């Protein structure tokens, strides 16, 4: 069996790896030399001033303000602070594809286009131009119209009293 042949490329790659390794060891030694190990704890502290900036000096205790937890607002308002939305909305069907079973409804108040799927229909089939009543629920990709029913042009007739017998 012959011995493996060392090509120029193999030797070159070997040299590059060795060079990388020594450079890495040099960087490691430099980091260790410049590290502040054993520095006093006070030098490692960082403080936040009244404007939210990070400083190395401790704050003045005479300027201290007490803030209640309830006054801190991080992102959105609490649910109780919101006005309840009208659950039943009205709008018109701008597009509906019967074969694929989806379409869009334009809300008459907000002019927002809301997705509707055939599974969300409650009052039979709908077509383009129909006036509909619907509710909005958040789906995976945004608001979806559910419990969609055709809006009747005239209110439904009241239950008629039986005609008097003659």
TrEMBL record:
Residues 154-166 have a biased composition (Pro residues). It comes from the Bacteria. Residues 88-150 form the CSD domain. Residues 1-42, 146-166 are annotated as: Disordered. Residues 22-33 have a biased composition (Basic and acidic residues). Pfam families: CSD (PF00313). InterPro entries: Cold_shock_domain, CSD, CSP_DNA-bd, NA-bd_OB-fold. PANTHER family: COLD SHOCK DOMAIN CONTAINING PROTEINS. This is Cold shock CspA family protein.
